[in-house]
Amino acid sequence: MNSSTSNPALAKARIAVLGYGSQGRAHALNLRDSGLDVVVGLRQGGPSWQRARAEGFNVAEPADAVKGADLVAVLTPDMVQPALYREAIAPHIKPGAALLFAHGFNVHFGQIAPRADIDVVLVAPKGPGALVRSEYERGRGVPCLYAVHQNASGHAEAKAKAYADGIGGGRALLIETDFKEETETDLFGEQAVLCGGASELVVKGFETLVEAGYKPEIAYYEVMHELKLIVDLFYEGGLKRMLEFVSETAQYGDYVSGPRVVDAGTKQRMKAVLTDIQDGTFARNWIAEYQAGLPNYKRLKQADLDHPIEQVGAKLRARMPWLQNATPKPAAEPLK
Ligand code: NDP
Ligand code: MG
Ligand code: MG
């Protein structure tokens, strides 16, 4: 379809992509369009099996996909990877082949101890799978982090870069990192700022307005709905672009009130979150929670879903048809 990959490190390689969700589907499609030989590894009867077949892939059980592959990309949810490694990868991966991750969690926190005779690398696109695919189709790519954890063949870095080229990342930007940096910064970002920090800021702002007697509908617009406008401006042009678009009054309020809400104490607590990530406390707790059947995860998730901001939000969004399915759901959701 598109021009074949120019990077010789994987020229005649067979690549097994395990998982066909957000990242797996995008990687498999892009690698195939880059001229590489791709087999998709999935559980037969799972929801992704039919989809990958329908999209023209050779699909096999993970162990069979791994046999004979020169590179195995592990693109299933992180928590299922240790068992997948033990059962389908370790017994079958060829000596000298490469094992590739898109997130360093399991290797960095010792949940997967890869065989010594294989390469272990990381290629992590800085964007969701849908964007990895759509940018590739436009002839562009999404920047990727890459890292080498283990270099058994002597060619691990070249293979990681060739894979990043194959999914389009080489057209944009490749940034070298290591498993520790990628894992710890990824966890910190999602906990302190992106998912944890942002959602708590919104919910606390909503509660403050509603408890002061303002209408929940109006509070919703002010603290959740309009957040997108601000985030889009950050995304496009940083703080500068946001400040160019908001009123002088909003800017002055930002300068004097922002630091009252998110202050030095917040930063201290961010550091405590980072310490828990660095010393393995978070990983240990999360793995124990997963193994116990997710009791706290389920309870905390339900509490978020039951918050009044969710009821008023659902009612308001139903009257804004342009929001319905604006972002397609990932092919498969982790951790139901
Ligand atoms: P998904 O949750 O989208 O993966 C779901 C896929 O994995 C489905 O195809 C599912 O198949 C398959 N799967 C689940 N369990 C197994 C199993 N035991 N054996 C084989 N296949 C299985 O994953 P993501 O794409 O979100 O994440 C993949 C990796 O990429 C993770 O390491 C993640 O941290 C990393 N990453 C993710 C990003 C993202 O944007 N989501 C960004 C950067 C990195 P079925 O449907 O049949 O159950
Ligand atoms: Mg993450
Ligand atoms: Mg929250």
Automatic annotation (TrEMBL):
By its UniProt entry, which Pfam families does this protein fall under? KARI_C (PF01450), KARI_N (PF07991)
Q: Start and end of every KARI N-terminal Rossmann domain?
A: 1-177
Gene3D superfamilies reported for this sequence: 6.10.240.10, NAD(P)-binding Rossmann-like Domain
Q: Which family does it belong to?
A: Belongs to the ketol-acid reductoisomerase family.
Highest taxon of source: Bacteria
Q: Which HAMAP family match?
A: IlvC
Q: What cofactor is needed?
A: Mg(2+)
> Which residues take part in binding NADP(+)?
20-23, 43, 48, 129
Keyword Plastid found:
no
Please tell me whether the keyword Amino-acid biosynthesis is annotated for this protein: yes
Pathway field: Amino-acid biosynthesis; L-valine biosynthesis; L-valine from pyruvate: step 2/4; Amino-acid biosynthesis; L-isoleucine biosynthesis; L-isoleucine from 2-oxobutanoate: step 2/4
Where, by residue number, does Mg(2+) 1 bind? 186, 190
Name the record gives this protein: Ketol-acid reductoisomerase (NADP(+))
UniProt keywords, alphabetically:
Amino-acid biosynthesis, Branched-chain amino acid biosynthesis, Magnesium, Metal-binding, NADP, Oxidoreductase
User: What does the record say about how the cofactor binds?
Assistant: Binds 2 magnesium ions per subunit.
